[in-house]
Every structure is written in structure tokens, then in C-alpha cells.
Amino acid sequence: MLIRKGFYPFIFRPTVSGLAVAFLNILVTLLVSLMAWAAAATHPLIGLYQGIYPGYGLHLPGILLGLIWSGIYGFVFGFLVAWIYGLQVRRRLQASALPVFHIDSSQKIHILQAGKGARPFTLVFVANPVIAHPRLNRYEPDPILKDSRLFFRTVIRVLRSLANNPLWRQPAIANRMRLIAIFDPSRNALQDAYALCESISEFDHILAPRPETSIILDYVTQTADADRRIEYADVIFVVSASETLTRSSARFSVDAAEGRPFKFSFEAADGPLTQKMHAFEAAVPGVVALSAWDDRLKTPLHELAHALSSLENGAIVDEYLDRYADNTEHQLQFVINRKHRLHSTDAIPDVFATYQGPDSEAVLYYSDRHRSDKPEGWTSYVPEKATVGSSCIMDIAYFDYHYDPLIFDFLYDRLMVKMNRPGH
What we know:
four-stranded mixed beta sheet, seven-stranded mixed beta sheet, 9 helices, globular, about 425 residues, alpha/beta, about 30% helix
């Protein structure tokens, strides 16, 4: 199941922008000319048009010439503005990250950090070869395979994001993860096995991981250099440079059968607690489809929380939406960080949940009763934030942002179980 519908950077296409401005300029010129002609009166814009549009006048041939010139001027202006904007976006991305590790271009698999333990917790970054468009029954090459610098800058940006976060930068986590990058320009054929991302529809900009996550895992595990191969992954970041699909998204992990139990309840500590499990392994790894053009440091943290959680043992969902579409909500078996009241006018309960991690005491988490940025009619409510002045990473972030305490503790325990799992 796909999770994530958020804000995104938009890469203007110069040709489309030029045509849009040309059409608008033609429309304005036509309306002004017709009104001045009908009223037999001059308008300040008429003098301007006569000065910049050769042959323009308040008669049919003159107006037609004016429309042609207004279209040409509008297209050139729109094209240049979009081209300059795109150039600035690319320069900003180039300046946003500096190389921090050596890359051997002869290798497909790059071990950025070896990790610790018999089976270290593993994040894999892979350059997406092909984008699928299921509704159009076609495939297109992903530009990221032609720009290794952009791919590795995106990887570095994700690592910076993790290093800036209080959870992921803890030595017990940051120094023990295995970090691997895959850049393989040789597998670029327009075939289904190489399409790791897809479009959801032709009317939005969501970059989605393929729902057949096995395709993504097979691509990762079948990538091989002479002396290295990847046997498993916990979360996979698929990086794309599509200039139209720029909204990142994620799919949940599917947990394996073994792990360590925890208890959870949406009641006070003296109520019944449901037992769930932090799995040692991912039967199917969580996947993040990450746009290389989204340079916000919050995005990887947001998507990683989705991908690391699971439907069966605790899904971490978006908090900036009151609810997903009905079919998506129906699939959410067990949500950690969002609850609903029967009516929007009902009071928000003081207690949000009780969580008891492995080998720890039960902890009470309160509800956030001070959210003032949501419209009337919302029935959902969420856990209390870390501090009054901060936003939750799963919500809209205005200034500072963190995981709320419940998500923080849940993810920490989940990571510790995976980092201390038995070796095989």
C-alpha cells in the first residue's frame, strides 16, 4: 500500500511554461483590443502594444498581428523564466551536498558503511532505471542513470537528514547501520523488471514505488560485482530524477514471523494491552521512492518512518491528512500515530495511547489537544508533540520538526530489535 501525499518541488518545463504564458498573453491582448475597439477609446495598453508589436492597430489585420507578436513574446518570456528557474534549482542541489566518500565508477555496488553485527540493519539506495506508467501501458527511462553526481548528492542529502535527527544520529544506530548504494547504468532497457518506480495517475506528481515490491528486491539482490552482492535489505530508497513525478512516497514493510513482543493500547495503562511484535527481519522491505529534486531534509525522515513501519505490527501514517481514501483506510490494520473521534465536536481524549516496549515498563502518551492549523470538521487527533514550538515529522512542518515521543520510542525499539537480531 502506498503512503504519502505531501508538498513537493515543481520543476517547470520550459516549453510548457512558454506555451502557457503565450496563451495568457494572447488572451489579454485580444480582450484589451476588442474592448478598446468596441468603445472607440484608447487605453494605456494600446499605446504599449503599438510600441512593441510591429503592425499592431485597432483594426482586424492589426489585432491579428498583435496576437501573433503577443504569442511570440509570451512564449519566449515563459520559456526563459522556467529555464532560469530550473537552472537555479539544479545549482542549489549541486551546492547542497559535498562528496564525503570515494566512489569507484567501475563498481555497481558501493559500500558506504559496512555496519556492525552478524546481519546489520541495512539501508540500500538504488538509482531507478525505468519509470512505469501502468495506465498508459508504457515505460520511460529515468534521467537519474545519466547523472551519477545527482544520484550520489541525493544519497548524501539523505545521510545529512539522518545525521541531523536525534533518533537516527544516536551512536547505537548511526554507527551500526549498513549503507549501500547501487548505480548500474548497464541495466537501462525499457522492461518491467527494471521499472522500480511508477506513476499513480497522469494528473498528479506522485512518484510511487512499484506495488510489486518483489521486483525492487530482485533488482537489488541480483545486482552483483565481482566481489560483492546484497542478500537482503530492511529499507530501500529508490532515487528518481523524473522532472514531472516529484512527490516522494513510500510503501510499508512486511514483517517476517519472528521478533520481540511489545504491548500497545489506545487506553490508559490500566486498560487491556494488545500484544504485537517488532520483527527481526523484513519479509518484504519497506521502499521509499525519493525524488532527487526534493532537497528538503525532512522528506527522507518522513518517508523512512512510513517504510520502516508495517501494517500488521504498527503503521506510521501521515498526520497532515484527516484520513486517506476509504480503500486505503480499510487496509490500515493497526495505526500507531492517528486516532479518530466519532464527531469533530467531541473532545479530544487526554490519553492517546499506552506503549510498552520489549523489556521496558508501560509508558503513557498524551494527545495533542493544541493543534490549531487544521480545518473544522477534522475527527482525527495525534500524539502530543516533543515540544510546543516544534512540528511532528509526519505532519506539516512550520519551523523545527521532530518525531513525536510515541513515534520516537516505537521506532527506536524497532531499530534496536533489528540491530540486535540473531545472526544466520
